[in-house]
Design goal:
With 393 residues, the chain is α/β, with parallel strands linked by helices. It has a single domain, classed as Rossmann fold (3-Layer(aba) Sandwich). Helices cover 36% and strands 12% of the residues. The protein has 16 helices and nine strands.
Length: 393
């Protein structure tokens, strides 16, 4: 019989072994599939000195009539968010002739600031200690530097000066400021926002505000993303209270959840969290200096826009999506919601829109058809597969 104190010691030792395996950068770099590894096919330099990793999906049969697709993940994640399922959206897009680019936004993957802390940060990345110099960046920095950098890169390698932009959560939210502030708005030919709202219908969100504050405090000394990666191996009591903000468990495969914690989870930048606090408190997304109300300027967005909402989404719920949608000034805008009330197999949560076992059949085909219809040289699409449960406006 094992003594309780020895059993506890062994459990603690096992925990530290798991932490060391899942938390370090090398473990993710050596992930068994390219889809799970940091973006490293190409690297892009932003004007403020960040190095951004890009992963590229080339179609076997490219369609010259279709513009490239850029896919942007949300805060606290990396580009592997898009590819932790087997039949993922980038793969379906490539199969339809699109050249697809996913990228790790600043503060995720193996991105870093060039010339700053080059010696210490690679070592810190193997631990749970927060890297140096990565606390102050904001959503405004992503809008001002990351978006133009990736657009320039795609234009350089494809020769196309326009793209289709698909963003999930913050990866879609940041396109509204980009379009409103007049940053070469014509470069975004079509925009798809999945779980992306910049108006909150029921602010303040007290529980999310508390989580925001807690993450900012933790990030002062540690890396929340790497601390969460051991959850790849085991679940802790009470995790359901956190998980529900990401996904609905009955709609997502266990292996997808394991891959999420092991490979897709990253740090939420304290500066970005601080900027988002007014959004959670008052319901409108503001600039970091609080001088610009991006929600109030949605009428300036003229780009063809598709917003995709899930009936079980707790972060970008349907009422918030409807308010954001109504304020958009584009004459070509569409809102879809996915849930049982609309004839879908399940109610979709925030990340279910990408991760659900049903998304490859219920969400991806009509989304791609929506893009197909708006490409400069594409032939008309005769069938809108899996259109049940879609509400258009």
């Amino acid at each position: 019989m094992i003594r309780p104190d020895r059993a506890f010691a062994r459990s603690l030792l096992l925990l530290f072994c798991l932490l060391g395996d899942a938390g370090c950068a090398t473990a993710r770099r050596n992930a068994p599939l390219r889809d799970l590894q940091p973006c490293a096919d190409e690297f892009v330099a932003t004007r403020d000195g960040w190095r951004i990793g890009v992963r590229r999906y080339r179609p076997e049969h490219p369609d010259p009539g279709k513009l490239p697709v850029i896919m942007a993940h949300g805060l606290g994640l990396n580009a592997t968010f898009w590819t932790i399922t087997d039949d993922h959206l980038p793969g379906q897009l490539a199969a339809r002739g699109y050249e697809v680019f996913v990228f790790d936004m600043r503060g995720s993957g193996e991105n870093d600031q060039l010339g700053r802390f080059d010696f210490v940060n690679p070592m810190l990345r193997q631990t749970f200690i927060r890297e140096r110099g990565e606390r102050s960046w904001t959503v405004d920095d992503m809008v001002r530097f990351d978006v133009p950098a990736i657009l320039d890169h795609v234009e350089k390698v494809t020769g196309r000066d326009q793209v289709n932009w698909i963003g999930h959560s913050l990866g879609g939210m940041l396109i509204f400021p980009y379009l409103e502030l007049g940053h070469d708005t014509g470069r975004i030919a079509n925009f798809v926002g999945m779980g992306s709202t910049i108006i909150q219908a029921d602010a303040p969100h007290h529980d999310i505000i508390l989580a925001n504050r807690g993450l900012r405090a933790l990030a002062l000394v540690a890396s929340p993303g790497r601390m969460g990666r051991p959850l790849k191996y085991f679940r802790l009591p009470g995790m359901g209270m956190i998980d529900r903000f990401y996904y609905t468990s009955e709609n997502v495969e266990p292996r997808t959840i394991s891959r999420f914690y092991g490979y897709a989870l990253e740090d939420t930048g304290p500066g970005a969290l601080k900027q988002l606090r007014p959004y959670l408190e008052y319901g409108h997304m503001l600039s970091a200096d609080r001088r610009i109300d991006f929600a109030a300027r949605l009428g300036e967005v003229k780009t063809p826009t598709l917003l995709v909402a899930g009936d079980a989404d707790l972060l970008s719920d349907v009422p918030s999506t409807e308010l954001t949608f109504a304020a958009i000034g584009s004459s070509d805008k569409t809102l879809w919601r996915f849930g049982r009330a609309n004839g879908n197999v399940a109610d979709y949560g925030h990340c279910d829109l990408v991760w659900s076992r049903h998304a490859p059949r219920e969400i991806f085909p009509p989304l791609i058809a929506w893009l197909d219809e708006r490409q400069p040289g594409a032939k008309p699409v005769a069938v809108r597969a899996a259109a049940s449960g879609v509400v258009e406006h």
